[in-house]
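Researcher: I'm comparing several assemblies side by side, and this is the next one on my list. It has 631 residues spread over two chains. Same procedure as the others: predict the full complex and return the structure.
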Amino acid sequence: MIRDEEILEQLLDSIRRFVRERLIPLEEQVADEDRVPDDVISEMKELGLYGLSIPEEYGGLGLTMEEEVLAAFEVGKTAPAFRSAFGTNNGIGSQGIILDGTDEQKQRYLPRLATGEIVASFCLTEPDSGSDAASLRTSARKDGDEYILNGTKRWITNAPSADVFTVMARTNPEEKGARGISAFVVDRDTPGVSLGAPYKKMGQHGAPVCDVIFDDARVPAANLIGGQEGTGFKTAMKVLDKGRLHISAVCVGVAERLIEEAMHFALERKQFGQRIADFQLIQALLADSRAECYAARSMILETARLRDQRPDVSEQAACCKMFASEMVGRVADRAVQIHGGAGYMREYAVERLYRDVRLFRIYEGTTQIQQLVIARNMIRNAE
Amino acid sequence: MKLMVSVKRVVDYNVRIQVKPDGSGVVTDGVKMSMNPFDEIAMEEALRIKEAGNAEEIIAVTIGEQKAQEQLRTALAMGADRAIHVEVDEDIQPLTAARVLKALADKEQPGMVLLGKQAIDDDQGQTGQMLAALWDRPQATFASKVDLDGQKAKVTREVDAGLETIEVDLPAVVTTDLRLNEPRYVKLPDIMKAKKKPIDTTSLADLGVEAAPGLKVTNTAPPPERQGGKKVESVDELVSELKNRGLI
């Protein structure tokens, strides 16, 4: 529920302005240098972007889901690398603590996550467990007041800049499935925690990703999220439900940007003596993009409102993630097509965004996993 | 010392202005409105003066319709301590604005009144000067640098010949130019907090101010559409073409 129309509009306006005036002009530089400049990171912290979804009592803005997706629509209008910098603090990095953490864990981490003083990452994926997350092998063996973690986590977003990790590890080796998994908050400076070299990616340059290795890393038992073993997979799934809605909204933001770029180009570019925007075949590309993007926006807002009333929106969130990420893929493809040869050139934003958006169909649950989530929910409800 | 900053609600600078078909003004229905950018610079300067420990309180003032409170909220979110809304429905002329600010200056006794050198809607650029005259205090207009020194302010002004530095006794009126500073981005948590800061509402009658009817806009017209250009082959051809058209 939107708490105050005027405040919300001001908030969105402030984000919009920062994106337009500060971030968009830096996109090429960030892509070339593969890093977001430190002063921009500081500005994003000062602006309050790291604490969008952290509750107000812990120093965040405590945005409702509806407000958060509206903010994500705006943030999506620039290179996803910027969003990624503060994305994990608002999303997968902090939500485990927010949703299931003990009071002590919340007090200890959330205020610093809200200001961006510390950065959090989410460690679920492993070399042999991606979509089949419940088969993960990283182990956490209890030893007195501590757990000893061993294993490797793969492709962890923001790991190179993270100070703290939410880690899913198996506390019960007898239990091979989801019930043997627990979630931990692990400080980066814990002895035995190390990082792999940053990966070279297809797109989203400036959003650092690397492996996180746990080699006899001793973590205090007080860092077991919720203080209970065996509930870590549930925590992870709840975190991803919310994350999926956020990512969906980012997809819409990028799609709106792509449409804007394509529209602008179509109005400027002349062929056969007229603007290409006046050709019906170009118009079809634009219209299809607009309609699909609008559909995604609408379903995300609907689901966000629903989530503000009741937490279980797995099926709807999966629908949003699947549709919005596939939609932005098609929109990016059409935007490149409208640009013609120019769309294949680095100097046009659509070329870069085309590569950036490819990831949306893969991370935080592939399209195929979303299909399974949706269908399984349908079957369960029908049975 | 108190600082008073006047902010005006204007059509956002990113909006492509459309003139009403009957020439009575520009279209504002459904158009995004913002704080006049020069006033934003004035607000930023006031914040810097306060942050440097040279002022205790910043009062943001606006004169305009009910919705102009949105711009006061922005000023409060930027860091103003309180705000005064002088509610007026009709368009405000510079003399009326100056009279209002004079009345408020008498009441609040600020050490400095800061305002944009002009508003981007009507580009009058007169309010600050008129206020200085009515208030009988020094003015430092088109400021590109402001340094406070006790009861004086050293102000660098952008003039045709370059930069001119003057010293004025406080209280004084300062109107701000584009290069004075770069206004900060409003922090999101401060937007939430601004809602709790007070806005006093008053009217021309309460302040004993009479609206100045001296100015009447008779027509508003869009600039002529750009004509297509012409390419020339050489400098000589360019010169003769310009001569033919009587341009040089």
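Model: For your comparison table: The radius of gyration of chain B is 21 Å.
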